[in-house]
Amino acid sequence: AGKATEPNIYLVVLGIAQDGGYPHAGCRRNCCQLVFDGKQTPKSPVCLGIVDGENQKVYMLEASPAFPEQWRRLQDISGLRDKRAPDGIFLTHAHVGHYAGLMHLGREVMGAKNVPVYAMPRMEKFLRENGPWSQLVSLQNIVLQPLRADSAVTLPGGLRITPFTVPHRDEFSETVGYRIETPRRKVLFIPDIDKWAKWERDIAAEVRRVDCALLDATFFRDGELQGRAMQEVPHPFVEETMRLFENQPASEKKKVTFIHFNHTNPLLWDKKARQEVRGRGFTVAEEGMRVGM
């Protein structure tokens, strides 16, 4: 039944983990052992899909290393199983979990034709000038679509996607978040940022302007990484973000949807941690979760 009542444009969460996925390469700790013991299910790196049923279009935000299963899931969810490739892929930055999946579009795998890949100037230059990504461009597996910060891309169905820069470790490219909107609803997507205080915008004010905000929740708290200084990989701790919003109304807290969990983050594998976060009024992203647009 349900199909007729579903919104015509909706966003679907295809992956919730940090770049390395869950379980994580090289991890022998309990967090990842739970998967090998069959007590937890694997989770793929962050990726969102957008389905526009009326215009028969599907888009992806991020091309993660789990692209094969995420693309198949998006085809199945949308019912557009004959579609050969996404109608557009929007990239946030050049950290492996966010763009490495582009390799599947090349001649060794899908041999895709002219897939629009939306990228900021440094990201576009990185793909154009470095192999193996440059081959995707030269063989026209992908067509790079330049983005400008705070300038919207307008797609069919009244869908607008606007990139904005955020502070992050920008070794090869700048880093952006996205504002995804239709005339009905607005969603914020910031999978990676260093710390909220480093951003020139106020995250609470940004959340007020949208209906749902998928925010960086790489680590739950300080001290989570063993044998590694956490200031080397700054992200807003979930505890910090919850503190930041603790005096906000319940309606604002509920919009904050945590995503992009490192394998050490108990929100991936600890039911009690998820219950605590939800009990404080926040939302925890799950694979398959849909947001009507």
**With helices defined by DSSP (H or I, 4 residues minimum), what is the helix count?**
10
Helix content: 10-25%
Supply the helix-strand structural class: alpha/beta
Number of DSSP strand runs = 14
Kindly describe this structure.
The chain is 24% helix and 23% strand. By secondary structure, the chain is an alpha/beta fold. The strands form two sheets. It has a seven-stranded mixed β-sheet with strand order 6-5-4-3-2-1-14. The protein has a seven-stranded mixed β-sheet with strand order 7-8-9-10-11-12-13. The chain starts with 8 loop residues before the first strand and ends with a strand.
Identify the notable features of this structure and list them briefly.
single chain; 293 residues; alpha/beta; seven-stranded mixed sheet
